[in-house]
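The data are passed on as follows:
___
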Amino acid sequence: MKKTLIITLLAIVFVSCSSVMITGRKQLLLVPESDVVSMSATSYKQFVDSMPASKDAANTALVKKVGKKIARAVFDYMKANGNAADTANYAWEFNLIKDDAVNAFCMPGGKVVFFEGILPVTKTEAGMAVVMGHEVAHAIAKHSNERMSQQLLTQYGAAFTDLMLSNKSAATRQTVNTLYGIGAQVGVVLPYSRKHEYEADHLGVIFMAMAGYDPSESVAFWERMAAVSSGKTPEIMSTHPSDENRIQKMKDFLPEALKYYKK
């Protein structure tokens, strides 16, 4: 039984490996992307239908304009580099919601939401492109699928740990499984999410450059975002990087992003 489980886990990992465009980072995708996109489309529609659309016609149009420019630039790059097939699952939508949240998100398949609360931080079209590039990057890099796959693998790992301790006392098994849960959360789940955020920053600043936006605007945007941040969660216990680390990383990404920038 133990040997069979080990072989099964190894086989799953081996056949499900992929890599992220540009960064080349290896990732594990256990869930068919078409399934992830289908579920997300339903959730996205339910969310948008339940929230008031912005009445700010100018910014609503700007969100759509910036989103379409970046999505088109990324698709052109993908097709030029032999990845045209990867564009099949995307049906981009860009909506501005009337809400004070300083936030934006993108669901698999290219379903983007901006909240009005982030507009005072974006300030300009280029500032909006920073956020849009970041959110588009989450979709292009299939981060949601990877997170789902990671959670599945963590569940397999917990089951495997319990199986390996099957000849131990109930107290020992409970203690080890508790420690496994804490270790998986702090050592795998949270850092992986921070890795996704850094990768979305990395790809996002390149994507905005591909679309003709000056990538150096990204540093100014994140400095403004840091200024309005309320409360500080220790980075080790957070799914997002600290403001200071994020801004430094953004500066590190700029030389590469500038190679893609055409005014």
